[in-house]
Specification:
About 25% of the residues lie in helices and about 40% in strands. The chain is built from three helices and ten strands.
């Protein structure tokens, strides 16, 4: 309930400048943020995905047909496997014309968000990055996926509204 009110409050402030009464069982805000940084020293892409916990749990339940509790430490191995499988199915990168392999590093829960970390090694330089991002598109059509890409200190951002999944970044 607290998360729903938080999302409602945030959306109402962004949209109208002051809160309005929430509709019963409304969930008006569906967003993920993908941060990608090219680490020239380590020759790798470092990727983090930030998603609302309740949305991620719901989409994992829907995809894997099992109960999901990302807060449960005793289920960390199973949760990691589901997160890795789901995200790599819905997020991919092509770096300078070559498919970039995503290695799952891990995840952490912070308040109402889940952060998932990946790395794509063996990329000494990066001039063009093509992204295919359909995270949570199989959950809600209202989904918005925001991406921030940083290469050599230059940061570029892009917003994908459902059903759009593709973006390209040139550096």
């Amino acid at each position: 309930m607290g998360l729903m009110l938080y999302k409602w409050f945030l959306l109402s402030l962004l949209s109208f400048g002051r809160p309005a009464a929430p509709a019963p069982d409304a969930h008006p805000f569906y967003v993920s943020v993908v941060e990608v940084e090219h680490n020239g020293k380590d020759k790798a892409l470092e990727i983090s995905c930030k998603i609302f916990v309740d949305d991620m749990e719901d989409v994992l339940k829907q995809n894997f047909k099992t109960a999901v509790d990302l807060s449960n430490a005793s289920q960390e191995t199973r949760n990691s496997q589901m997160l890795k499988e789901y995200i790599t199915r819905h997020l991919s990168f092509t770096a300078d014309g070559k498919s970039a392999k995503l290695n799952f590093i891990g995840f952490e829960k912070e308040k109402e968000s889940i952060y998932c970390y990946f790395e794509s090694p063996n990329l000494p330089t990066l001039k063009k990055l093509d992204v295919n991002n359909s995270l949570l598109h199989d959950y809600k059509q209202e989904q918005i996926n925001i991406m921030h890409i940083t290469v050599n200190g230059s940061r570029k951002s892009y917003k994908l509204d459902f059903p759009n999944t593709k973006a390209s970044f040139n550096f």
